[in-house]
Amino acid sequence: MAKIDLDPEFASRFPEGEGDGRPPCQLYLISPPAYDPGFPEVLKAVLDAGPVAAFQLRLKDASDMEIMRAGGVLKPILAAYDVALIVNDRPDLARELDADGVHLGQGDGDIAEARSLLGHDAQIGVTCHDSRHLAMEAAEAGADYVAFGSFYDTATKETVHRPDPSILGWWTTVSEIPCVAIGGISPGNAAPLVEAGADFLAVSGAVWNHADSPAACVAAFADLLRA
Ligand SMILES: Cc1ncc(COP(=O)(O)OP(=O)(O)O)c(N)n1
Ligand SMILES: Cc1ncsc1CCOP(=O)(O)O
Ligand SMILES: [Mg+2]
Known about the structure:
Layout: E1 26-30, H1 39-49, E2 54-57, H2 64-80, E3 84-88, H3 91-97, E4 101-104, H4 111-118, E5 123-127, H5 132-140, E6 145-149, H6 166-174, E7 179-182, H7 191-196, E8 200-203, H8 205-208, H9 214-226
Parallel strand pairs: 1-2, 1-8, 2-3, 3-4, 4-5, 5-6, 6-7, 7-8
Bound molecules: ligand LCLJCK34, 4-methyl-5-hydroxyethylthiazole phosphate and magnesium ion.
């Protein structure tokens, strides 16, 4: 099963004193807000364009049946590229889809309940806004990653929290659990978040609304994250 957690053998590949013991920052795609029948072909082009660690199915206005249908179509594509399928908000649908995990916001339910439904191997991510306290709580409750944001203006979601990038660096000093940066991230503004310590960049609008193509945007992220 695709995993998005830190590779425990990663640190041992660095001689002492080199590297910070964490794998390089990776891309975590958030789906477009609505599912289009042409999307599987777009997704394949995107996954051919550069490495992607995870894909979150985030269809806020879709019915359960629409989410299940979309997930059912996308799951084998993602599996073929070894990309983790994370379902937003809904542990029950994540289980029905046999997805790799679920992303929970602060109002989306209990981490322990999601864990008991999805099992030990599931990836459970938790929104922590700009809060060190929420992140510590999420880690203690068994989250597999914590997400901070919104770092930049975004048209994808109404947001009220604006963390400083230093929260990412702080997190890497207190926890081995990966941290995800989210909110208005593009190839042009991502560098400070990568430098601050983000393990993953979660991106939606910059990819799906890219002036040239979604694949061009993922290729630009690949160049940035390789550098
Ligand atoms: C990776 C990631 N981080 C944060 C969010 C936001 O979750 P939430 O606060 O529950 O808001 P919605 O996405 O449900 O509108 C996320 N989805 N993914
Ligand atoms: C879901 C979510 N949570 C905080 S910002 C955000 C939107 C992410 O999408 P974009 O990359 O288009 O800003
Ligand atoms: Mg949510």
